[in-house]
Write a structure and sequence with these properties.
The complex is a heterotetramer of chains A (391), B (617), C (428) and D (295). Chain A is mainly α. In chain A, the strands form two sheets. Chain A has a two-stranded antiparallel ribbon. A two-stranded antiparallel sheet of chain A has the order 2-3. The longest helix of chain A has 26 residues. Chain A is globular, with a radius of gyration of 23 Å. In chain B, 40% of the residues lie in helices and 20% in strands. In chain B, the strands form six sheets. Chain B has a seven-stranded mixed beta sheet with strand order 7-6-5-3-4-8-9, sandwiched between helices. In chain B, helix 2 packs across helix 3. By secondary structure, chain C is of the alpha/beta class. In chain C, helix 2 crosses helix 11, helix 5 runs parallel beside helix 6 and helix 7 packs across helix 8. Chain C starts with a helix and ends in a 12-residue tail after the last helix. The relative contact order of chain C is 0.13. A two-stranded antiparallel ribbon of chain D has the order 1-2. Chain D is globular and about 55 Å long. The chains are: A mainly alpha (391), B alpha/beta (617), C alpha/beta (428), D mainly alpha (295). Chains in contact: A-B, A-C, A-D, C-D. The interface between A and B is large, with 32 and 46 residues.
């Protein structure tokens, strides 16, 4: 164990040989010639990434002009799920704290948003706040507070113990949701979700653009914002502390990373993302019920980050998109496999196949591509990066 | 050549100073620390030179005093070097690989008063030798790890402390160094470059301010060594030992004279990685490096996935043809070859060169030892403009070089403009005479007299011949020429280089002086042969084990046969043996520049050699 | 790197060209109303006719799959018969293509409705009360008429919901009145699912209990077998009522009956219509208890009913296992058929036309499939509500496992209750 | 008092089911330090098998056949989906078992069909009077089954070579391997045992009334049980299972008296609340061994 100060004296970094005031310059055509730490940790460390991401976002923004509404809706749902998946990835993929309680925080977000946004004269509790950012962030904040309350218990536990305790959170949360009919509408009934409106425009009403198009754009914008925030977080000191805690928490503690503080932070931020995800998740359907926030949803989020790629923001998004599109993919299967029925009275039918496919996906990814979709992408990228060789 | 006056001599130092004034914020050098290439501007560079220069003054360095440096390439090397020149001292470079005995010899012989040892490893060597060096007063170290608090030798001085002394001195006597700089004269010795004698102890060649100035002017003007001349927009990677004259040229002097941005490799092991990152525009390498690069391409292409392998083979085959065309035209593309190359560049060569770190290279140079023509051809084929040049420490590396468009592979090119070069009719030895011929060997007038004749001709010791009346071809070192029992003169290096062109062969030593026929000692390249063996599921433990595998013997036998076919029967190897170990500087088998010491080899492996001539193994 | 950038640039250009060059297909087919096409149905009898698509949002895999599956089969049989008899006007009707499984999950229900809403003329089946409420807002916006597979007391308040039969609330009132009048009950307990369905029955029972001045105990239940019902049983026993109303699924009902029987309960247990499933007869140990204690409150007849409609249905069913849910699904078709016919008559086969047709409907000839006075949406909602309830008892000898025990009657509470103000469940 | 004791009796019955399930979890955990989330699916598979077999053969014959079949199924799952992952992060394996759970549950659930099913148990809702306390026969049967199975397990671990190997492997896997224990066999046996235990537990969870495919949720209650008992303690699993069962039943009985405002049955969350309370004091459960951390 070396002390960090020892390192400093080994060369002349103490003196003015390196200037820190000057902006690091990029040397054309030499992406490897990193002349500043900031450059190495930059959001887009290569030009290609910048171009690719911009192109991808541009294409995504143009999609509603081309795709049918039903697909747009799935994609929009995927975007929202991706926000939640990013949140879970922050605490589980980056900080290594396995949480099976994500559904609870998503639920807190959904309920909070619905309560804030709800009609004050309606059947359920509502405060009539229509300003979208207000109820969205409000939902995130309340979820974050819940996360912060839970964190101290979580920081005492590790691994599978933590997983089961967070699972307990889901059950307790469901109980509370079911009890609080005023806010949630109660089990098996639910209530109307927060309605996304911008100014006077209700995004759920067809106008010059359809509901699906408008929601798609809304969710895309919000996802981009939250993905950028998360990416910035993980390339900061906090992100490195998370990784240290994940890789070996005791070692991280010895090195001066305050374990409790960073675990708390991880849970809080993760819960915030979950809350935001929850506030938007039911915008398209306009309705949710507390039964939603169950173990299955937690597993769904875990599956997203594992299938997408643990410890990557882009993986979270890929995983969320895949799982959002899975029902649609499954519904196309009977066309290819005639033995799969689309009638629920026959077996095997697409409903069963869809669920089973989801399980099979989880197993297959973990068995064959433990790094998930991101791993596949990484391999493709490496293939070209290592061109004309293989390594 | 600019005017040289005694009142205001331009030296390396004044050139750095002028550049720091003109473009203070331009990048002078980069070194990689904690994964980031830290940049040092000309202003900082010059500032540090002044501070360290003041420190040298404070420590009492007088004109002509020697300052030793034993360190990997890094900014401090250059700073100390130029600070020494500023103080009118003499820099003595040591190879980081120099073992303790050689360090003792060099420090004693040069009489260095101050010595810079990079880290604990170098410091241990210096300290062990220090007591035998009465003139050695101070040992400065750069890396304090393992030293601070453990060593209490009063002569030790941490670099930071040296800088502090300098800063204090500078504050107290701001003009002292400038005065010293202004007093510089063309005859001032700038550096002692110890030639890595393949025979006998190293000799310290004295290079003067005038030598360096002349050499730099020659390189930088007209067709020079690189055309257009090296400039601020050029990048070089500094990775060969700085105490060698070639690297000193490409790093320190190119930087001072041309403003080239110097990038220091982290270590010799990371050169491929650093090369990839830096993508230098000018690249100098010794044949050994080029051979290694070639071997890496071959091996990696062969072990790539199926599609990539096919693709690489196809384009490498095209590259062979392109190379042949370029060799025939002297380095100029024909219309059809240009077209093929353009397509190939798009689909393969650009990526290949990028991986090698040679994508931006506009001028690649090979020197310091003979190289096999096929290596040059290969690199020309993939679009790396290769130029072989020739020079030596004693003429400050100024002799001949190939010029774009008039490249002749197999020759070292044409003499520079404005120098004299002739080949002795009788011995075939190459002689040069110009302003950069050195001032003599340090404390060895006898050897100086042997090398420079009264007319000023430098006897290079290399045997050469004219090709087409314009280009020079080096046959071999004069003293390496083998005269067989049959009385035939054979130049072993050509055979050796032909063998070493194979990616599997690292060392080849041809033996046969006074014998009936030629034989060879061959050392394999552990990386490539190891890979080769792995692919064939041949298990092995050590280098020696691998060398002695029958499959490997067969492989080498094949290469030897192939090479033999290219030579007349007297020049063919009749027998060969595998070297049982990797040759090593520390064991005295190689010089610091990785050249084989034939005498040491014939002594160490005498048994092996005699076994090839019917003796007992 | 430059190459990557170039490649992406090209890809982007191509993509944007594709997207702007050929816009998406914004209109829905041939210009007719959504869900109405000139193309024949996928399983058309007469390929010359167009097709009307009706959506089905049912439970095929959830708690009420025992209801949803036979209900849907009954519907299919009904429309098959209609199509074979020449369809409606120039159209045949399809209830298969847009049949979705909500698994008795209101959110999935809403989501599936969003998926099919652009492709259907009306919803032929929306199973569940909370579930139908979850899509009501969107359906009203689009004038989509819904036939619910739910008997909540709120439907008569909504124009675009085509309710049939008595509601849970009224059934519960009648049950309490029956218990008081015929069984002399002094106390009633209600075990019910949380949510609109269970609450509707609970409120009905509560209103009646208050009106009749007997003890009332509310015992919430939740989906799940014996382990989940243990506390329900404990709660009921503690209240010690003479009659227990149950508004759950069949499994829960069976567990409650079993649990109460085990503890020696001797009163009556009256379940809402969805509490019965013929599979409970397979529970041999339980059948005696069910026979002794259980009654099913309903306004519909059972499988063996002697009406022309039931006769036709039994013929259409063929080998299909008998189920009263099948009959209900079959019978509900009459209402939708009447609305479509009227819309065609008005020459307005659109969603608006359907809604107008529905609003003006004042009854339907169901050949004895539906209760008297069903499908009256024209008049005052309170008058149109069906208030009569019959009780079925378990009878393993019958096809659907139950047989009418008490003929339809209207109790005093239900008779006087004003159903036009708000739904019962909202008063929970 | 009678009501309380009856609740305890009820609780011992469900507690026995939890204990049987928890034993399966713990056996797998001891073998490979993984929580198998596939246990609910194996339980469901067992129930489905028995419900079908009971139609052709009788209940008593159906149970052993189903248990053996589910054990084989678990064996197959271990071989296909788990064995290749040995040595990977435990959490990853745990998630794989979640995937297995989903798949097996869908397939088993498909066989339940539309209408509720019954395992055809001989007890139904019959009660037996023990010292003035009415106890459901099925609860008594579950308790007896749990004691018998527990005893057999004890004997298995104590007196058979493979049992010994499993104990050795649980103590120190590498040392056991060095002594010639085939760890693969240990893994396989532990999965087969856990699968069989889940099937037995399922049978008793399904007695007393008709069931549908949602019965698997019962198995989730075993998760807080194993945490409470300590992940690696077989005895802890049994005790915690019974404890949770009893607490759950008592809460269900008295909840309306204690907190009348609560509408929803708090039974299902009681295990988690108890678990969290215990973990605050003992982070490794009541009987679990503290994990030794090496950096």
């Amino acid at each position: 164990m070396t002390t960090p100060t020892d390192e400093k004296t080994t060369s002349f970094s103490g003196h003015q040989l390196e200037e820190t005031t000057r902006r690091p310059r990029r040397i054309w055509g030499r992406p490897g010639l990193v002349t500043a730490y900031a450059q190495d940790m930059a959001f887009f460390d290569t030009r290609a990434k910048l171009v690719a991401v911009c192109a991808l976002v541009a294409i995504a923004a143009l999609m509603p002009l081309q795709l049918e509404d039903d697909i747009l809706k799935l994609l929009a749902t995927g975007f929202v799920l991706a926000i939640g998946a990013i949140g879970l990835n922050l605490v589980t993929g980056y900080a290594g704290q396995v949480s099976l309680g994500h559904a609870f925080f998503v639920g807190v977000g959904a309920v909070t948003a619905a309560v804030l946004n709800g009609d004050p004269d309606g059947r359920r509790l509502g405060y009539g706040i229509t300003f979208l950012p207000a109820w969205m962030l409000g939902a995130g904040l309340v979820a974050a507070v819940c996360g912060a309350i839970v964190a101290p218990l979580a920081t005492r536990l590790r691994g599978l113990y933590l997983a089961i305790v967070t699972l307990g959170l889901v059950f307790i949360g469901q109980y509370i949701f079911a009890e609080w009919r005023e806010g949630t509408g109660g089990r098996g009934v639910g209530r109307d979700a927060a309605v996304p409106t911008l100014g006077d425009v209700d995004l759920t009403v067809n106008g010059a653009y359809t509901e699906e198009q408008k929601l798609y754009w809304l969710m895309l914008v919000i996802l981009v914002i939250f993905a950028v925030l998360a990416r910035n977080l993980v390339r900061s000191k906090v992100g490195r502390a998370f990784a240290a805690v994940r890789d070996r928490d005791i070692a991280a503690g010895v090195m001066g990373v305050q374990l409790g503080r960073y675990k708390l932070l991880a849970f809080t931020i993760s819960s915030f993302y979950a809350g935001v995800c929850g506030s938007l998740l039911y915008a398209a359907d306009g309705h949710f019920s507390p039964d939603e926030f169950n173990l299955g949803m937690s597993v769904l989020f875990i599956a997203m980050i594992l299938i997408g790629g643990a410890g990557t923001i882009s993986g979270s998004i890929m995983g969320a998109m895949l799982l959002a599109l899975l029902p649609r993919i499954a519904s196309e299967l009977p066309g290819f496999f005639p033995f799969i029925s689309d009638r629920s009275t026959e077996h095997p039918n697409i409903f069963e196949v869809e669920t089973a496919l989801y399980g099979v996906l989880i197993i297959a990814f973990l068995l064959f591509e433990p790094r998930g979709l991101y791993g596949i992408w990484h391999r493709i990228r490496t293939y070209w990066k290592s061109f004309p060789f293989s390594y | 050549m600019t005017t040289l006056t005694t009142t205001a001599t331009t030296t390396l130092v004044t050139r750095v100073r002028d550049r720091a004034t003109a473009t203070p914020n331009a990048v002078a050098m980069r070194h990689k620390r904690l994964g980031v290439w830290q940049e040092i501007t000309w202003a900082t560079y010059w500032d540090r030179i002044q501070t360290v220069g003041h420190a040298l003054l404070a420590l009492g360095i007088e004109p002509g005093d020697r300052v030793g440096v034993q360190s990997e390439n890094r900014p401090e090397w250059l700073i100390l070097d130029l600070a020494t020149v500023a103080a009118r001292g003499v820099t003595v470079g040591l190879y980081p690989t120099n073992p303790e005995a050689e360090v003792r010899y060099l420090l004693t012989h040069s009489g260095a008063r101050i010595h810079l040892a990079e880290d604990q490893e170098q410091l241990d060597k210096a300290l062990a030798a220090a007591d035998d060096c009465p003139e050695l007063e101070r040992i400065v170290y750069l890396e304090s790890r393992g030293i601070k608090g453990r060593y209490d030798d009063p002569r030790l001085l941490f670099w930071e402390d040296l800088v502090r002394i300098g800063a204090e001195h500078r504050a107290a006597h701001p003009d002292l160094l400038d005065t010293r700089v202004a007093a510089a004269e063309p005859d001032d010795i700038v550096t002692l470059v110890y030639t890595s004698g393949t025979t006998g102890p190293p000799k310290g060649a004295m290079l003067s301010v005038g030598n360096v100035e002349f050499a730099a002017e020659t390189l930088m003007s007209g067709e020079g060594a690189v055309s257009p001349p090296a400039s601020e927009s050029d990048l070089v990677l500094s990775y060969l030992p700085l105490c060698h004259v070639a690297e000193r040229f490409f790093t320190t002097w190119f930087s001072a004279f041309g403003g080239v941005q110097v990038n220091f490799a982290e270590s010799i092991d990371t050169v491929p990685q650093n090369l990839h990152e830096v993508q230098p525009t000018l690249f100098f390498a010794v044949p050994r490096i080029w051979e290694k690069l070639l071997a890496a391409v071959r091996i990696k292409a062969d072990s790539a996935s199926w599609l990539k392998r096919r693709w690489a083979r196809f384009w490498l085959a095209r590259a062979d043809r392109l190379g042949a065309t370029l060799v025939a035209t002297g380095g100029r593309h024909t219309a059809s070859s240009r077209l093929v190359y353009a397509v190939g560049w798009l689909l393969f060569y650009r990526a290949l060169k990028d991986r090698l770190g040679l994508r931006e290279v506009r001028h690649a140079t090979c020197g310091a030892a003979p190289i096999a023509p096929e290596v040059l051809t290969f690199f020309m084929g993939i679009g790396v403009p290769m130029h072989e040049l020739y020079g030596m420490t004693e003429n400050t590396a100024i002799a001949t070089r190939n010029v774009d468009g008039r490249i002749k592979v197999g020759t070292v090119g044409e003499p520079y403009d404005g120098i004299e070069l002739r080949i002795d009719e009788e011995s075939g030895e190459i002689l040069t005479r110009h302003g950069a011929v050195f001032a003599g060997y340090w404390r060895d007038p006898e050897a100086t007299a042997r090398t420079v004749d009264p007319d000023g001709w430098l006897h290079t010791g290399d045997v050469g011949e004219w090709v087409d009346g314009t280009h020079v071809r080096i046959t071999d070192r004069l003293k390496d020429i083998i005269i067989t029992a049959g009385g035939k003169n054979v130049a072993p290096s050509e055979i050796e280089n032909a063998l070493k062109a194979s990616p599997y062969i690292k060392e080849a030593v041809v033996v046969g002086d006074g014998r009936k026929y030629l034989t060879g000692l061959i050392g394999i390249e552990l990386d490539t042969v190891g890979e080769w063996a792995q692919q064939r599921h041949i298990s092995y433990t050590t280098y020696r084990d691998l060398s002695e595998r029958p499959e490997v013997l067969e492989l080498v036998d094949g290469i030897v046969r192939e090479v033999n076919e290219r030579f007349s029967s007297v020049e063919q190897l009749k027998q060969f043996r595998m070297l049982p170990k990797e040759l090593d500087h520390e064991d005295g088998e190689l010089t610091a520049t990785q050249k084989v010491k034939r005498s040491a080899i014939s002594k160490t492996f005498g048994d092996l050699i005699s076994s090839m001539y019917g003796g007992a193994a | 790197m430059k190459r990557t950038a170039t490649r992406l640039g090209v890809a982007l250009a191509v993509a944007s060209l594709l997207m702007t060059g050929c816009g998406r297909d914004d209109d829905n087919g041939s210009g007719a109303a959504p869900g109405v096409t000139d193309e024949p149905c996928p399983e058309a009898v007469d390929k010359e006719k167009g097709c009307i698509y009706l959506g089905v949002l049912s439970d095929f895999t959830g708690v009420f799959k025992g209801v949803g599956v036979p209900f849907s089969e009954g519907q299919k049989a009904f429309w098959k018969k209609v199509n074979e008899d020449g369809g409606i006007g120039d159209y045949e009707v399809d209830v298969t293509k847009y049949a979705k499984d909500s698994a008795y999950d209101p959110d999935k229900h809403a989501q599936l409705f969003g998926e099919i809403q652009d492709d259907i003329l009306a919803v032929a089946q929306s199973l569940g009360t909370a579930h139908t409420n979850a899509i009501l807002g969107d359906a009203e916006k689009e004038d989509i008429v819904i036939a619910p597979a739910s008997l909540a007391s709120s439907w008569q308040l909504v124009d675009n919901v085509l309710e049939v039969g008595s509601n849970y609330c009224g059934d519960a009132m009648n049950s309490v009145d029956y218990a008081v009048d015929e069984l002399g009950a002094k106390g009633v307990a209600v075990a019910h699912f949380p949510g609109d369905y269970g609450d509707d029955a609970a409120v009905g029972a509560k209103v009646a209990a208050e009106a009749r001045g007997i003890d009332f105990t509310d015992v919430p239940s939740e989906p799940g077998a014996a382990d989940k019902q243990a506390s329900v049983v404990a709660g009921i026993l503690k209240a010690d009522p003479d009659v227990v109303l149950v508004a759950t699924g069949p499994i829960e009902m069976a567990s409650i009956v079993g649990g109460l029987a085990q503890k020696g309960f001797t009163g009556k247990i009256i379940g809402s219509i969805p509490t019965w499933n013929i599979a409970l007869l397979g529970e041999k140990k339980l059948v005696p208890a069910l026979q002794a204690l259980y009654l099913q409150a309903t306004s519909f007849q059972t499988w063996e009913a002697d009406t022309p409609g039931y006769e036709a249905m039994r013929a259409a069913a063929g080998e299909t296992p008998p189920s009263d849910w099948y009959a209900l699904g079959y019978g509900s078709g009459y209402v939708m058929q009447a609305v479509i016919e009227k819309a065609i008559e008005d020459d307005d086969l659109t969603r608006e036309g359907m809604l107008n047709a529905a609003k003006s409907l004042d009854g339907v000839e169901s050949e004895g499939m539906l209760p008297e006075g069903a499908a009256n949406y024209a008049g005052d909602p309170n008058d149109a509500v069906i208030r009569e309830t019959a009780f079925n008892a378990v009878d393993p000898t019958t096809a659907s496992g139950v047989k009418q025990e008490v003929a339809p009657f209207v109790g005093p509470t239900a008779k006087d209750h004003d159903f036009s103000e708000s739904a019962c469940y909202e008063q929970y | 008092m009678t009501a309380f004791l009856e609740a305890v009796g009820e609780g011992l019955g469900t507690g026995s089911v939890y204990a049987l399930l928890a034993l399966g979890f713990v056996i797998i955990y001891k073998a490979m330090q993984v929580i198998s989330f596939a246990q609910p699916a194996f339980m469901l598979a067992g129930i489905v098998l028995v419900s079908y077999l009971a139609e052709s053969v009788n209940f008593w014959a159906a149970v052993p056949i189903a248990v053996a079949a589910v054990a084989l199924l678990a064996l197959a799952v271990e071989r296909v989906a788990i064995r290749p992952m040995v040595g990977k992060a435990v959490f990853v394996i745990a998630i794989i078992t979640l995937g297995v759970d989903v798949v097996v549950r869908v397939v088993a659930g498909a066989f339940i069909g539309v209408d509720p099913r019954s395992v055809g148990d001989p007890w139904g809702q019959e009660v037996v009077n023990v010292a003035g306390i009415d106890m459901a026969q099925r609860n008594v049967a579950a308790l007896i089954a749990m004691v018998v199975v527990g005893g057999l397990l004890f004997a298995f671990f104590r007196f058979t070579p493979i049992g010994l190997a499993m104990r050795a492997s649980a103590l120190d896997q590498e040392a056991a391997m060095a002594q010639g224990v085939n760890v693969g066999t240990v893994f396989a046996t532990s999965w087969a045992l856990a699968g069989g235990l889940a099937a037995v537990a399922g049978v008793f969870a399904a007695t007393g009334g008709p069931i549908d495919q949602n019965i698997w949720i019962v198995a989730l209650a075993a998760l807080p049980v194993i945490i409470l008992g300590g992940l690696d303690s077989l005895g802890g699993a049994v005790l915690a299972g019974l404890l949770i069962g009893v607490v759950q039943a008592v809460v269900a009985t008295y909840q309306r008296d204690w907190v009348p405002s609560l509408e929803t049955n708090a039974g299902p969350i009681v295990p988690y609340l108890v678990m969290m309370l215990v973990l605050l004091v003992r982070p490794y459960g009541l009987f679990g061994t503290k994990e030794v951390e090496r950096v």
